[in-house]
Amino acid sequence: MVFLTAVLAAPPVDTSHSADVDQTGAEALVSQEPTGSAYTLALTRLDDRVAAVEAATVTLVGHPLVDTTKVASRTLFRPDLVDATAAPVTSGLTAEQLPDRVQGARQQVASGDVAEATRVVEGVETDVLLVALDLGDQSAQNAAMTRLLVSADPQVALLDAAVGATHAAAEVRDVVAAATSAVQARDAAAGITVAAQQIAVTGDEASKAAVAKVEQQARSTDGYTNGAIPLKVLCVVAFAPSQHLRCDAAEALARLNAAYRVDFGHDLKISGSYRTLDEQISTRAAKGTMAAVPGTSNHGWGLAIDLDQANGYRSAQYAWLKANAMTYGWHHPVYMDEGGRGPHEPWHWEFGTSDDSSTGTSVPITVGVPAPTTPPPTSPVPPVVEQPAVAPVEPAPTPSATPTPSSTPTASTEPPAP
Ligand SMILES: [Zn+2]
């Protein structure tokens, strides 16, 4: 997403990447010859650009607006628990809102104000690119856990290619290509999810067992609250025995580390993983807003690690993880990316979470249960000052054999910082 930041941070009239629009020239023409042939040509070019954005919009909108990949990932392997009321994508700007934006741009192009039309078209292009990138990234994230089981599925390669093409197209502001590849990424992600579900039904016994194991691991912390998971419920990270994570996260991290070690010759150095509520309170006290509100950190679910990492965003390690971690279900939250709203923590990586563009945070992808919701007013996050000095090692909540959705880990709208 680093380059996306660069794309979006570009001055509104900097279209040096774009071969078919010379907006700087068009603006200059306004004060010279507003009715001349050059002016007409600039208008035509702008209109062509609007048409391209419109075509991209059709590509994005010409598919179901409900993010089917997100719904599927919520109900991974549990078609009996499909959440029919799952909310549609609620990013700041959704695909369904794009047509109005495009139409508005077209009207302003037609009004003859080239300078204003230039700015409007630029803005719409950015919006289309944002939606396309959001689709591509979310598809990849939501498929990340499933793909662990179906790495041989040809859709996995298609997903990788489509997400990469989305980003590459955005980098050169090709909105049509970005939209097209984003749709391909979403469809591929849906295919991966279906493949995993089919394995659970028709696969050989070994495959079925693998699916069942992943489901069991993903649900192993159901019934506990953030930061109150007994260590015995979690798993030790094989190459870092002092660290604990949810078992599927620990196993995926071991696979990720094995690939990392091939390229770097040493293990990943982990400085933090599961964090109890007390530890979250201590971290908050020490780091302030750089740390998550206690009770909301993804560390409290055993789904986040911090790396002992030098050079941050500029490090070879960060670049490698950005390119490879998602293959193993790990990713860097978009809001922590360089240029994201922050906090900016290149060392913080998460497993089994999905970027939530509606809140600008990341939340756990729940498996087989409804998606996390905002805590009801009657059960607020415990105030820091009321916490006991030492939390019980193995707190009271004992998950039943079949945890109910109401006892599902609940995501807050507070930024789940490290
Ligand atoms: Zn962290």
From TrEMBL:
List where Low complexity composition bias occurs.
Answer: 354-371, 403-418
UniProt region (Disordered), positions on chain = 354-418
Q: Which SUPFAM superfamilies match?
A: Hedgehog/DD-peptidase
Q: Could you tell me where the Pro residues compositional bias lies?
A: 372-385
Ranges for domain D-alanyl-D-alanine carboxypeptidase-like core come to 244-351
What Pfam families would the database entry show?
VanY
Q: Record's CDD domains?
A: Peptidase_M15
UniProt cross-references to PANTHER family, sorted A to Z:
D-ALANYL-D-ALANINE CARBOXYPEPTIDASE, PEPTIDOGLYCAN L-ALANYL-D-GLUTAMATE ENDOPEPTIDASE CWLK
Protein name as catalogued: LAS superfamily LD-carboxypeptidase LdcB
Origin species, per record, is: Cellulomonas humilata
